[in-house]
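Entry 14. Structure prediction run on the chain below.
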Amino acid sequence: MPVVDHSSYVSPVWLRNGHLQTIWPVLFRNPSLPALWRERLETPDGDFVDVDHIPACAGIRSNRVAILSHGLEGDSRRRYMLGMAKALNRRGWDVVARNFRGCSGEPNRKASLYHSGETDDLHLVVEHCVALGYLHIVLVGFSMGGNQTLKYLGERERTIPAQVCAAVAVSVPCDLEGAAHVLAQPSRAPYMAYFLRTLRLKIESKHARFPDLIDIRGLKHVRSFLEFDTRYTAPLHGFTSARHYWRESGCLRLLENIDVPFLLINAADDPFLSEECYPLRVAEANKAMTLEMPHWGGHVGFVSPGHELYWSEKRAADFLGTVYDGMNGTFH
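Output returned:
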């Protein structure tokens, strides 16, 4: 499939900066909360994940559903999640917006949390949607959730239900090690501070419940993902080091395995991404992949002032609609 040479996204002149595009939606976007209901799914290891159901039509289940996955320290009701849900609802898709463990407003039960390469919970939600009777399932992920989504689709050792027919991933750090180095730069310090503020609180909460497993001495001095992942993410999830975690968890090495149509949108000015997060050679070789790299958009930005939906949301809905129509679907 193609590398899109000329993206249809055109940023307003005053937002042609990756940092502004990244920050603007956080400060100024306020989408309304749709009608939804929450469901708790028990996991095989004795924990739980919470998902929000956002139907296209209240009281009526569609035959197609989109499973949305948020980014690091996000949740199912982040602005970008609600915007995407609205765009897909309008095209006839029910939406199941999932929360990573510990991100739904209630601490999860285990000492571990979630991480970039964790895909068992996504598979659990997919199987749950199959059990609900959905005939067509698509996956949409943002940032860390996008990495999980693409890694899941590329895992050869896993049998993915045939109902999963397409995916869209937005602002994905395909190369986790490279992205971690980018975010360690002094100019990215505000982003690191933003993420670490809530990550520290979660680690402190875990320490209170599992003091023998989690040591918080020096936690307040942690300033980078290298430090945080070395001390917490890697050992809590079975990795030997931060770099081992990054290498095993990044989706980049698995993109060539994906055989369902998928769209990867990474803005050229994304302040979180390294050069390796723009996998041109893989896109040119994998017929299932479409890679779009707008000049602007920042990290999960793609702002469209004056419009209810952002460009990335309409682009995702169009792409998934084209795939569905190609399967002899009927919605438009």
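The beta strands are 3-4, 37-42, 48-54, 64-69, 94-98, 136-142, 164-170, 262-265, 289-292.
Filed with the rest of this week's runs.
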